[in-house]
Amino acid sequence: RDAMMRGIGIDIGSTAVKAAFLDGDKFSFHIQPTGWNPKESAESAAARLLENVESPENIKITATGYGRKMLECAFKTVTEITCHAAGASFMYHGTETILDIGGQDSKVIVTDRNGNVRDFLMNDKCAAGTGRFLQNMAVLLEYTLDDFSLIPRDAKIQPISNMCTVFAESEVISLLAGGTPKESVALGLLDSIAKRASAMITRISSEGEVVFTGGGALNSRLAELIEKHLGRKVIIPKHPQYAGAIGAALIASSQK
Q: DSSP per residue over the chain, as a string?
């Protein structure tokens, strides 16, 4: 890698704006809530990364994510499928299957050994299996998202039969009212997301390790449950929620 490679990638998601700055061979990161004005949040994230940089006007910016078209200072916009593939391949070289669970959607991407996209599946029509679904359920359980990773090892899984957010909410409320332990319900919710993710993966990918990215990958219990259903190793890279931003920064740095 050319030591002078520099570029910024901004992944404008539904819940958070993730920004990555590649400067030579080092990355720096910034994350902030998307809020009601994605354009403003993305501009402020870019400005934050460029604060102490000499001649920032020479640094190209690539935007990705659902709000990518809003960032006027971007030199280029690239789909999140391409950016996630590039970012995950960079973080875990040789990966061929990527699972990304974000706030608004979940996707599975199959690449070749160089990170070029061969196939993908996306669930963006329904909140089930996404960070949004888990956030809604956390409110009912009086959990923070971190609490889902801290469910005791001996907790029993309470199966949740409904993945539709509205029906799952009433199912959770009646289970809790009937005295089912909170951690069993929480584990059941994670398990239902894991089942759904595993089914998506097996539709387009039959073997090998899976690299897990997106905010969902910050939940180690979810990764374990996916691994159990899939019978394949699930790897969480070091900065899982920045995969799209890293891919976008790599693309930006290669622009002449």
A: --TT-EEEEEEE-SSEEEEEEEETTEEEEEEEE--S-HHHHHHHHHHHHHTT-SSGGG--EEEESTTGGG-TT-SEE--HHHHHHHHHHHHSTT--EEEEE-SS-EEEEEE-TTS-EEEEEEE-S--TTSHHHHHHHHHHHT--GGGGGG--TTPPP------SHHHHHHHHHHHHHTT--HHHHHHHHHHHHHHHHHHHHHHH--SS-EEEESGGGG-HHHHHHHHHHHTS-EE--SSGGGHHHHHHHHHHHT--
Which pTM was predicted? 0.94
Whole-number pLDDT of residue 242: 98
- Segment 115-146, tens digit of pLDDT: 899 999 998 788 888 988 999 999 999 999 88
pLDDT range class, residue 57, cuts 50, 70, 90: confident
